[in-house]
Amino acid sequence: MLRAENITKRFSGVTALDAVCLEFQAGKVTAVIGENGAGKSTLMKILSGVYPDYEGQIWYKGNPVRFASPRDAQDCGIAIIHQELNLIPYLTITENIFLGRELTTRWGTLDKKAMRLRTGQLLDRLNLSISPDTLVSELKVGQQQVVEIAKALLIDSEVIIMDEPTSAISESEVEVLFRIIADLKKAQKAIVYISHKLDELFKMADRFVVLRDGKSIESGEMQGMTHDNIIRKMVGRAVHTIRRQAGFLSPKPLLSVENLCLKHPERTQENQLRNISFTVGRGEIVGIFGLMGAGRTELLETLFGLHSKRTSGKIRLDEQERYFKSPGDAIAAGLALVPEDRKKDGLVLGLDVRTNISLTNLKSIERNGLLSRAKESSLANRYITDLTIKTSSERQTARNLSGGNQQKIVLSKWLATHPKLLMLDEPTRGIDVNAKNEIYKLILQLADEGMGILVVSSELPEILAISDRILVMSEGNLTTELPANASEDEILKAAIPQTI
Amino acid sequence: MQISLQTYRPIILKFQSLIALLLLCITIGVLSDKFFTVANGWNVLRQISVNICISVGMTLVVLTAGIDLSVGSVLALSGAIAAGLLRNGIELPANNLYIGFTVFGAIVAGILTGSLLGWFNGWAITRFKLPPFVATLAMLTIARGLTMLWTEGFPITGLGDSFTFLGTGWFLGIPLPVWISGGIVLVTVLLMDQTRFGRYVYAIGGSESAARLSGVNINRIKIGVYTLAGALAAVGGLLVTSRLDSAQPNAGTSYELDSIAAVVIGGTSLSGGRGSILGTVQGAVIIGVLNNGLVLLNVSPFWQQVVKGIVILLAVIIDKSSAKGE
To answer: Quick check: is B191 in a domain?
Structure first.
């Protein structure tokens, strides 16, 4: 049905996909498997016309095709259902399904009757007994997903791509979804199914494709495969990074967390973090691994006082129980957080390097209540030199620097507060190899100087390279604690959600 | 010519509003011989000093990516409260009590009124996460209604020479309102440039989440900004009331538009984080000179509005394209 040959895609020098070949067949569910960053979403964006610019050839029903836009791909019969659903909440189901493809009468007005009728038929076919006039905002996530599928069926899609369709829906909704997928299979649609939940894949998929580091590693029949088999194919890289020698650990922990829970912001019965307990010692680097949605970022944010109203549990720093109402409290106690999205949360991009570095630390550069330019300059220049930040001057706007140098500014502004515990969320995402190594070196050096370090990463090699101890999270739980010499298989197994 | 323009481009960009102002003055001066006179010069400066007071506060608000639509009404209520207290004091016949107000007391009461209304704006915006547009729109109506209630719809006049001195007096050969607005500009430039508060205002406008993660108390800064905007609108209200020797119930109507115009012409981005007090001052002067010139040239008031609108559009378009060029 759909075949890709030697697809290569580069983003400003970084190769995201490297000569990927794969095939999706009619009447089959094909699972696309790979770690975070393996290239799954890039590939799907190419197949659905979001990235029209790539090397290689796509064949559709035996003809060469090249989609210029998502609309173009849809018109040919390829629909994608994104992890974040693309429905407009304050329009009805009918209006959403026909958005951009409205039927009109011969007077040019909307043919609401015909659209309503057709929507009703589609919903019937998908066993969703809800009025087509219902507002999408009133639907549950699972039902919204069904509406997305109805949208795909409306345009007679032959290939339906589902990106993590079960990540946000309940178990009973998953069953409904699986029934629908089985029906679609019977109707000879080609289903592409992306999921981290291996159990699901064993239940649903007929075939699999494994992507690793932007390459297609292997494809074949799902039958006869085992969990371990697949995980090995996903990981399968040679580990060439030098592991850290665990240093001396003082017996008293710097940070100890007991039964930390975080309530969901809307569904208050549910917890985003469930009874998390762990410790971090002085000079220790603790790595936290987890797949998308495991709660890693929420954990760091909670420790940093960002969700104080939804938090329960105990946080002890230096054996003193602490309660942080805001990041300001956490900073004052000696915590620092390098956030995941450095452009939005880490930096004020429109301000210059100097101002960004001093932002956390303005009190220290005050003289008689006024800011001292001289002190501010010397503070900024100290870190520009120490961390070898490549910038034309301290007055350069942060926006104009490369990702690696931007990240060094974020590190600088936190080091300037002399923290006891440094928390890093995906510290090397989108950073070139050289800057990456520099940042690793810096982290190791800081730990040697006695700082406690908590690193969140979705890159296994990163976690393995710098951690003294590894915590694995999955769906808001801390599933296991492993030593630094754990194998990638062990870590990944603990990270993959067990519920289905 | 081409080459020299390229060479001077950065300089032209940096001083574009000053250059525009200069060209504007020269054009009006050529067309009218009354423009370049000392009397007219002071006249223009006195007229714009009210807008400068308001616009300085507005600049702070806009720098945090907010907006304050209530400044005109806040100006009216603060002026009316000061005038009313000065004239009538507070009478409580039940307790057989009468509190009289000195000029100084009335001024303090006026500024407190503006601060309180501004504080309320900030509190509503941060406490209930209201869009600033909505919260201050509500305050626009509330404060106007309160003004009407306080004045019962009639102007409060006869405020005495020592009060009217504020808006009409001279000191060292310079009109008092120019001293006042100049002083306000000086202090806020210092505030924005040299203090933590100013730095946090820019950081919040540039990226609220980054500022929050850096430990900035977002709510406190925002409330401070709106309170200051209210206080400065009150100062404007005192100047207007004192110049006219009368608190008009409909004073300051649509002043928020002139002040937003000054902020925008001055190069402050409505999405926050970028701009300056001095830019706003230039913007206010451009609007003032334009108003004055159009009157001197006997342009009909109807056309004056059209021209002002076109100038605002041009200013923002030029600012956008030059920002892209950087």
So the answer is: yes
Nearest to B206 among A346, A351, A413 (CB): A351
Q: How confident is the model at residue A245 (pLDDT cuts 50, 70, 90)?
A: low
- Which of B188, B208, B213, B216 best probes binding to A when mutated, by most A CB atoms within 10 angstroms? B213
Which residue range(s) make up the domain with B240?
Answer: 48-252
Q: Enumerate the residues of chain A whose CB falls inside 8 A of the CB of residue B215.
A: 326-328, 330-332, 360
Residues with Cβ < 8 Å from A377, sequence gap 6 or more?
A: A354, A394
pLDDT band at A164 (very low <50, low <70, confident <90, very high): confident
The answer to whether the CB atoms of A348 and B203 lie below 8 A apart is: yes
In this prediction, residue B326 carries a pLDDT of 42
Q: In whole angstroms, give the CA distance from residue A98 to residue A119.
A: 9
Q: Is A64 left (phi over 0), alpha (psi -120 to 50) or beta?
A: beta
pLDDT tens figures, B268-289: 888 888 899 999 999 999 889 9
- With the C-alpha atoms ordered A214, A216, A218, A220, is the resulting torsion angle positive or negative? positive
CB A445 within 8 A of CB A453: no
Domain membership flag for residue B300: no
| Architecture of the CATH domain A2-235 | 3-Layer(aba) Sandwich (3.40)
Say yes or no: do domains A2-235 and A253-334+419-495 share a fold.
yes
DSSP B271-306: TSS---HHHHHHHHHHHHHHHHHHHHTT--HHHHHH
Residues in chain B with CB shorter than 8 Å from the CB of A337 are 213
Chain B residues with beta carbon closer than 8 angstroms to that of A304: 213
- Alpha-carbon dihedral angle through residues A435, A440, A442, A448, given to the nearest 10 degrees: -170
**Nearest chain B residue (CA) to A350:** B206
- Record: contact B213-A345, CB cut-off 8 A: yes
Number of separate domains in chain B: 1
Q: How far is A414 from chain B (nearest CA, A)?
A: 9
CA distance A410 to chain B (A): 10
Query: Average pLDDT of B108-120?
Result: 95
Measure the CA–CA gap between A298 and A397, rounded to whole angstroms. Answer: 30
Q: Write the pLDDT tens digit of every residue in A82-141.
A: 877 788 888 899 998 988 888 888 888 888 889 999 999 989 888 888 899 999 888 888
Substitution target from A297, A348, A414 for chain B, most B beta carbons within 10 A: A348
B194 and chain A: CB distance < 8 Å anywhere? Answer: yes
User: What are the residue boundaries of the structural domains of chain A, listed by start?
Assistant: 2-235, 253-334+419-495
Does residue B14 form part of some domain? no
Ranked by mean pLDDT, the top range of A6-15, B40-49, B309-318 is: B40-49
Answer whether B202 touches A (CB < 8 Å).
Answer: yes
Q: How confident is the model at residue A249 (pLDDT cuts 50, 70, 90)?
A: low
Most A CBs within 10 Å, among B214, B219, B270, B271, to test the A interface:
B214
pLDDT of B148: 93
Q: What is the CATH number of domain A253-334+419-495?
A: 3.40.50.300
Residue B270 lies in a domain: no
Instruction: Lowest mean pLDDT of A63-72, A186-195, A489-498, B287-296, name the range.
Output: A489-498
